[in-house]
Amino acid sequence: MIRRLMNSASGALATFSLLAAAPALADDVKLPPTMTVTAYDTGTAGFNIAVGVGKMMKDKYGTDVRVLPAGNDVARLAPLRAKRAVMSAMGSGTYFAQEGVFEFGAKEWGPQPLQLVLSSVDCNAATLGVAKDTGVTEVKQLKGKRVGFVVGSPALNQNSLAILAFGDLKQSDIKTVEFSSYGAMWKGMVNNDVDAAFATTITGPAKELETSPRGIIWPPLPHNDKAGWERVKKVGSFFFPHMATCGAGISKDKPIELGNYPYPIFMVYGSVPADEVYSITKAMIVGYDAYKDAAPGSSGLGADRQTKNWVVPVHPGAAKALKEAGQWSDAQEAHNKGLLKRQEVLGAAWADYGKSSPPSDDKAFLDGWLKARAAALSKANMPNGFEQ
Question: What is the pTM of this model?
Fold first, then answer.
């Protein structure tokens, strides 16, 4: 199955071969002649933003950036692990890979030492959209309702469980309706096959539901509900409170207190040299004005808009560039060191588990690893992040 997922990364490359007249090079930015970046499928926000960043690098620094589209997180990371790509525009899969859960709990993978370059948080939010005709106005009212899950997308389903946790609900409290894909799930919303589904507020299917007879509502996650947010973070610690001002039925005049996480997340492996990551990050910071309007969400990559103290560490090279831009503090440095320590704990736990003669059966292997992982994190006094 892993090979099949990796093969999906063999799609077409988007290559920037535009002629650049005498690129203006910063003395401390030294980019390679070519660079490969992986991203979500062609046409997605992550892909389009990566294309915009790549064009800036070609125009300003003469670097040809190839954007390799891939349909899932394993396929996006495989080229980086094989050193055939240096950076990826990922989503919440960045965190799942670091933690060694879901697909990354397979014996071929395990916890991955991924580190951030820059990430985007814009005006949208990521949460459960609910058909307005259900009468639901609060997350807790989803009890007994039909909630969409996507087969083969545990990360997407975990996001739904995190939002449900705000209303003190578990999977056993709702009626799970499985779909073959994200698109099929949202078609099910329009067709009254399901009552709620996870999405970003700016996704096209949410707009479609808004204009359908069912309508759409985004049950709020009030930011002053500390208990509710504690429950969210126990299931999906990568979420944080966010005021949504754009999306289906949302505007600056009608904002909603919801939750979000960075997307896309430009990240690299921790083994990439600091000077190389520094140059990439510095180029993205200096060249921001050239790509900030290239695609929806691009403006969220601004150095002054970075998510601080998140759940995945920032690469030291990127931290240096952010510090030069006045966007790095001693508190962030301390938090970052704690996250790097977490990666060490997870890596050691994985190595020890591999030496313990784990079962060969895939499910038994994963179950055993999750127990070993939980024990190692508990011993280190670190949160699990995936309680249910």
Answer: 0.82
